[in-house]
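Letters spell out the chain; backbone shape is given numerically. Both lines appear below:
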Amino acid sequence: MLMNKFAFIIHPVQAGDLARKFSLTRYLPNSWQEAIFRHVPPMKASHITGIKSPTGAEAEGWFIGCPLSSRQMLALPQDFVLRRIIQAGQLAEKLGAGIVGLGAFTAVVGDAGVTVADNLNIPVTTGNSLTVASALEGIKQGASSMGIDLDEANILILGATGSIGAACARILGRQFPRLTLVARNTRRLEELREEIEASNPRAQLSISTDSRQSLPEGDVVVTVTSALDAVIEPQDLKPGSVVCDVARPRDVSKRVAAMRDDVLVFEGGVMSVPGDVQFNLDFGFPAGTAYACMSETMVLSLEGRFESFSLGRELTVEQIEEVDRLAKKHGFVLAGLRSFERMITSEQILQIRDKARKRLKKAAARV
């Protein structure tokens, strides 16, 4: 059977992450690392093997490293950053990839991959469609585990006017009545609210530009901003709430994990990859699992769909539903719930749920 080939472009979230590939850099200050790697061209980071679908289709690929940190992706001149990403895509072409995926901030810079695709001879995908599908599945799992009825819950979407946030809002707005949309641009929030209300007459939508005021009212929070630093702190969350953090870098502060044992926080978009996959690169995940954006690139390769699938700022519900179907066809499934580098067990969720109920009971007794 034909071996389909793909590539996926990665970059260090912060300069210190380069030590995973270049151990000597751990002794250098982050600012020095950034200064050095600004002048280093993209490189092959690893060869990915062993991906095999239940259909019998197989795929192999490469991680292509673009050694610019998240901060550099946003702070350096956009033309310079886009040139680096395009160079990474050109390396993917030379290696024989039939499609290339954009990871983390390489999918955010400029026009979300459109310019990159225009300058390559192979299709490009951001992976955002499968990211949305897997995040929504995780939300339903997490809410069920915490005893939250999504038909009664206030579902809050932080970063609602971005590509992923708006797609989550459209799908959740079709299925559940109460949504709070939070972003910085009031006009875009109003446009999104009108669109969702037109598709669901029972929708009860609120909009806000003040996350600090709105977050404590969220029973379920989907957060997907493009902020470099954490935007959700321990005091922002309601006891018993469920938080799906789709953003990279994370939107949820590590202080939440340390201080709030009464909320369920998990990363959106972590999937099990079919076959005996060997990534040959440590990106902090358990063996055989990957981000959904990476997984979308693999799914399209296994399917032989060498086309620019998730590209630009707009995602359609149809795209998301289609790639979700293809992922299931090829054996990609949600890899449980994962929080701050660790899998969350059923026992831990029960403990979180119990502590939340006790805290809410105490709060009610004081009123």
Remarks:
- The CA atoms of residues 1 and 56 lie 8 Å apart.
